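Re: the pair you flagged

First of the two:
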Amino acid sequence: MVNPGLFSGSKSVNSVKVSFWLPYFTQWGQSLLVCGSVPVLGSWNVKKGVLLTPFHQGNELIWGGSITVPTGFQCQYNYYVVDDNKNVLRGEMGKKRELVLPEGIQSGQEIEFRDLWQTGSDALPFSSAFRDVIFRRSWDLSIKATVGDKHINFAPEAQSIIVQFKISCPNIEKATSIYVIGSNTKLGQWKVENGLKLSYFGESVWQAECVMQRSDFPVKYRYCKYGRSGNASIENGPNREVSINSSRNEAKYIFLSDGMMRETPWRGAGVAIPMFSVRSESDLGVGEFLDLKLLVDWAVASGFHLVQLLPINDTSVHRMWWDSYPYSSLSVFALHPLYLRVQALSENMPVEIKNEIEMAKQQLDGKDVDYEATMATKLSIAKKVFTQEKDLILNSSSFQEFFSENQGWLKPYAAFCFLRDFFETSDRNEWGRFAHYSEDKLEKLVSKESLHYEIICFHYYVQYHLHLQLSEAADYARKKGVILKGDLPIGVDRNSVDTWVDPNLFRMNTSTGAPPDYFDKNGQNWGFPTYNWEEMSKDNYAWWRARLTQMAKYFTAYRIDHILGFFRIWELPDHAMTGLVGKFRPSIPLSQEELEREGIWDFNRLSRPYIRQELLQEKFGAAWTFVATTFLNEYDKNCYEFKEDSNTEKKIASKLKICAESSLLLETEDKIRRNLFDLSQNIVLIRDPEDPRKFYPRFNLEDTSSFQDLDDHSKNVLKRLYYDYYFHRQENLWRQNALKTLPVLLNSSDMLACGEDLGLIPSCVHPVMQELGLVGLRIQRMPNEPGLEFGIPSQYSYMTVCAPSCHDCSTMRAWWEEDEERRQRFFENVVESDALPPDQCVPEVAHFILRQHVEAPSMWAIFPLQDLLALKEEYTTRPATEETINDPTNPKHYWRYRVHVTLESLIKDNELKTIIKDLVLWSGRSVPPEDSEEEAASLVSASSVTDAVSEKIRLSSESNGVPRKEPLAVL
């Protein structure tokens, strides 16, 4: 609030002129507009907002405009970049701006609001990760400012102007003040002790007012932290400046919203490990939510501010080991029963159940996770405890509160689980009248009068205890200064609660995947249905917003899996098994008219599998006649097409299985299937199944014999159209698509958002991520820069997470051992040594690679636990290949890796903790406090201000006008 004492004695009037002022560089055809919560600013209808007018001040392009409002006026507002038709091209991110007029303004006076454009990165310090975890002690500061604590006589007839300075500083030590120092006497002439002291107004905002004379302008200034010990830390960058129009004499009040205090970027480190991979002395064959408390203790002792997990939602679709795939959710809201600690279900556990648990611990304590046995054991024990305590728990106020808050997803989930088990399948087409969801059917299924009501309640019970256990771990992490980072999968299982309840939100006749990339040269088919974004938009993406709200109960940061899917998704027909012959959705196809204009006309030839006898002989050798007669028809001499029962990948696989069972195959089933798939993929264009006059170029079409047998004209045309389709044609469409969906996700929670942006990256992706404040991912062995074999961590941008490996690739040790020639190139080009590299990733090599990453400019350096264990030889006895979490080339990969050392042992290993913490500290990254909650969070060291430094600042007046805003570094 503005101090009304500043305007004491002045008369109330009917109207005041409010001016907006924003430095912003636009492109041709773009304008700036201000829109807000009141009619004069459009009532949040951007089309009715107030267009601003550009003018130059020094080197800055300023956008300005004004409105006339009554006294006592207040509203919210934001700025937007629009085209000539007032269509929004981009809007500000972060919180809405607050406009509150000071009382007692006299008629004719003008109040200027001088703002800086808010990017997504400006909002990062206000995310729960920083606000509630990293900087939480700074946010606990008591509000120092009080209304009327300072009185300034404001005489309109005098040549005076009141300037309000406002800055955000979310990371500050206790007993530290913020000052403005500047070029005139009111701001101390660059001396901190004589500067203007700001008051704390809450939510990291510091502000103060100062009366200046018109002759004082222009004023150059900076913000400064000043500690109790006399140490001062002046913000980085050029001087800020405030100036006025000397030709106008009316009195003014200038609000300077100066964004963030510019400081050395905050950087932190973290550890990544799937929940199922954690090993402790208490678990039953798999990591459990309560193990996170031990993991947090180890993280703090090792200097880590973050623990990153893979998805933890229930994936129990098949009730077998296939469900180990954590990205195929049965429900995007329910937690996985796999991570339940059964010992914590009751304080009055019968002796026989305790003994059963102890026996199970020994039986399940294997090298890897036994998914099926572990699930069966935990559910069996949980049912026994439930039978004993169901009335006590279900009637408790705590459970009733949980049920009330979560029944919207909990009841359909419990009903689905009951039907899955009753019909012994998750395929709802086998559920008779329950195949199609309705609220009436649901209420009957979960009715207290139903014979199976106890089964329904058991699913409630398990989810309730999972919630309690994960909440306990999450609260513990927050208090210890550790961010718990979750994972938001891009898809849901085709047979899931979500597709049962809301089938209209999904394109059930399609499948999701990825085109050929680093992970798989043949592309990937994940099997998820793609999203019906048009339908989702009708309720402003309520399903997505609910997902994020649920995640935010436990996590303060999250990773958006395959963020490219929010720009475009690789869509495959549901009959596909591989990921090669797909198309992007959305995308602009090649029309038949467009192709005909280019002289392309034989569409059947280009869009049907091109199968000639010589190709059959080449692929199948002597078995080609068997393949031809079994799977193909000869429609012309030496020209073949697939039979009706073999014309899709799923049909081929099904027919092959029958042949294999009948012992008709002359070669292995896998080999014949791969070759038949190659035949079916030997096309140049993919015909749109919904519009036969639209086509999509097949990925890597030049690799096909269908393409090679074309005439030169057709080849040249198709190569040009292919390049245009994949690298130019879609950019604006994909950008617009992401800007419709991603802001909804980001605004539906206050978690810190990171995006997994690996793979084939369109050029629009990184600018959008930067605009929205999304932190990207950099893996050294998968550089984004063309022509580089190995990424250069020292050149990564601040808004990134850097890591030497991730769950989708081999570990650092395994990668080192995979390829001798590549290892040599890494040693020469990255280590800059001409010596012979060791065959194994010895601790010295691991230390070098990890040091590269902690020293990178990236906001976060996050390391898989396996890569950290490589720092000590005693932890490298397990074969490196066994430490890989996922093989993306295998759609039926068993996700079962368990760390071979317990958390208790790691906590006792002071040597390893010291090695890791030293790496983090030496790199200048922040580490969490270990001693107590009251210990102040580590900050960038303050530097003393000497007269020489003050003089240097005074002389560095290179900035004219309002400084152009630089990308934010979280302070």
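Second of the two:
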Amino acid sequence: MSSHPRPVLMLQPSVNTTTVVTTTTTTTTYAPIQLPPLPPPSSPKDPKNYPLLHANLPKSLRHFPLVFPNGSRATFRDGEGGDEDMQEEQEVVSGSGWRMLKRDENVQDSSVVGLSEAVERYGKKRSHSHQSDNMMEGIETTANSSSTVPPPRKKARAAPLPQISTVNAAAPPSPLPSPHGSPAPESIWPSAPPSGSSSPAPQAPLQPDLALTTLLTLPNLLSHFTSLPPQLQSHFLLTLLRHSPLPVLRTLHSVLTPTLARDFLTLLPPELVSHILSYLPFPTLARASRVSKAWRAIIDSDAVLWRDLLKNTKIWFGGDSESSFANSIYARRRRAQRNDPQPSLPLPHPYKMLFKSRHLTRTRWVNNPEPKHISFPAHGSSVVTCLIFSHGRIISASDDHSIHVYSPVTGERLRTLEGHEGGVWALAACKDTLVSGSTDRTVRIWDLATGRCTHVFGGHTSTVRCLAIVKPEMVDVERDGVVVKEKWPKRPLIVTGSRDHSLRVWALPRPGDAEFKCFGSDDGEVDLAEVCDAEENPYHKLHLDGHEHAVRALAARGRTLVSGSYDCSVRVWDIVTGENKWVLQGHTQKVYSVVLDLERNQACSGSMDGTVRVWNLQNGQCQYTLTGHTSLVGLLGLSPSHLVSAAADSTLRIWDPDTGELRHTLAAHTGAITCFQHDEFKVLSGSDGNLKMWNTRDGQPVRDLLTGITGVWQVVFEGRWCVAASNRSDQTVLDVWDFGLDNDDDWIGEPAGGIYDDDIFGEDDDDDDVIKPMEEDEDEQQEQADVDAMDQDLIASDSDSVIELDDEPPIPSRSQAKARSREVHPIHETRSRSIPSSPGFEAPAEVAVPGRWEPPATSLASGGPSTSSRHSQPHTSRRHTRNISLADIPGPSSSRRTLPNNPDETPTRPRASRTHSNRRR
């Protein structure tokens, strides 16, 4: 090619040594000899058929030494690239105390001979082979030098060379010597004459041989080869290859293999590539994605591939779980792009990340026999009433009025949130915002980044027992008979349920919004019932009134709110308008737990009557009544494919939410289930003395995480992390397990319920191993104790001025209750406790603990308020026929209290005044 530099042959300087009395060494350098250039390649019509047309030859083929018959040495160099590559290597090859010399620093360096010079020189061999070496034209004579003064080193100028053609153009290509002879050597081998007139002109120190003759004929050989038909070209090359030694074949292979390789993933249509890759297992795909950046981009971005892989491995759950995960990842990337607009590598599709996370969740929790485990004390000996894991933080609340934030890695307490004047019974978090509800009747908003309480919402007149944060999401809404997708609510909301029989809806303050506190810092002693007027709160939206007893549980998503109450009913509300859409009646005793399933348009509720009911939210009818539990169903959990219930009968049950079919009964605990959480792979449940892990799909126990302890208060998990709060020797302890390995940093957990908050503010048992048989009376007492263990609201909190019997921490065992009773319940210190009187109400001297409420008359749910005659019946008529004393409740007390005689007064009815202990300064 004319644009490429011509090959050259650099001659090594000749050395003549003459020994007389002294030794004189003469060094003569020669200018590079230009070899005839190769003919430029023709421009093919389809370059894809000529992959080697512009292939880069390896350095060993562009720069190599030559040894001529008389021992003279030279270096063949094809163009200037070899020298540049060589120079670059010399510049980078070095070490401590040494470095490789550059080419011009080595005096022993060989001369470089160009291709044309080498061909010309080797062509001379045949025509002058009959002459002796020292008589050959162009060869320097070393024995006849009589100069005693070494001439200075001098580089001769290169002379232009004529085009050499040794064969007839019509003759077949042959490496044999040309019969036509060559031009005079004087015009071919120019050299630098040594200085001084007495020195003879130096001659080129080489004896041409077959190699040089071949180089001379190569240009014409190449011209003839290109004019041959493809079959003859193949025959000719194969003939040469058959006579080539192994080193030559290896060199050719190193050139041909990368050049002729074809990346089929980049050449095939994306649909076909996705289909081919779908046959590969996950480990093979992971290795293939590391072949090249192009393969990684193709594999990681193929949503169909990873969706099918999720389905084939049975970890595609359906519903909104996958889309919710993807939306969460996209929200994180939008925030990250503000800091790093151009990532170095294409980001994988969220389905690929989801597959890896679910694969790790399915395998690590079972196959990691020794996960990292730390434990540390928390909250002294007080009960942990709430425990959540949010954005890599452990947040625990207690009936000691405090909220603590811990690091799951070190167990270090990061923050202590103080401000509540009563036990904290409800928590919810999103990003750096925490919402808490307490027996002091307030709702507080905290900034987890700073630990400050930024807002205090008042309005409830009794304990805030449950709450939830409702984030905006796309939900189905019926408009004029057509179901459309709309985003509701328009901004994040807080829903709170209280023992004052009502629920309230608040706007969740955004970071930076104006702070609001329902009382002033210098108000002195104030009555919150008078000062905290919710109507004056700009964040207050709705007051949902309708329940006739304490609101025990709630669940909310989109525009739908479901609440369960001690009035045995479940109500469905429109969270935007406040409309009470349905009153779902069917339970015969208190409702303790509810879950909401928007995907199936249904809600589930658990009751003290031992049943779980599945309600159709479209018509308000009970679709299924799930029976099997023999005691209070105090806990419910819902995942895309499983509904799990936990009861005081020491069992958990896994149901099919679509059909109501019982799949598995988890029976290995020996006491009431005090806490549990589950996903599609596992169930973690706590009871007296142990914390167990179960396989969700076969209902078999997998391992015990905790054994031999007093009891478990709470358990939560997400991704690689598991956190449990338990009681050991009157000390509350937090245990943290990390099931991930060192290379599992990108293990992304799915939060409980599948609720993500990345874009919430976006632009848009006893220790006994043997269970002894019990008499009938003992059976009844044990059953009641198990019910009490699940009923977290039997014993009053010391923050209430009146003995209110609805809020109580979980009581996993008798021993736990005994350990707590001395500190938690001041009613154990005296035989009775007086109740301050209020206008219109004459308080009795003693209050009895209620037994089981008799079920009210069952009526079909209907829209609007309930029409039951509950108001006309005194509460005493709904009590159990026998009064149970505190001795029936786990805990050392023989105090006997009676219910109020006022039919309009219940243990949870709001009072008009509060004692001094509940006032705020």
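The first strand starts at residue 8 and ends at 11.

-B.
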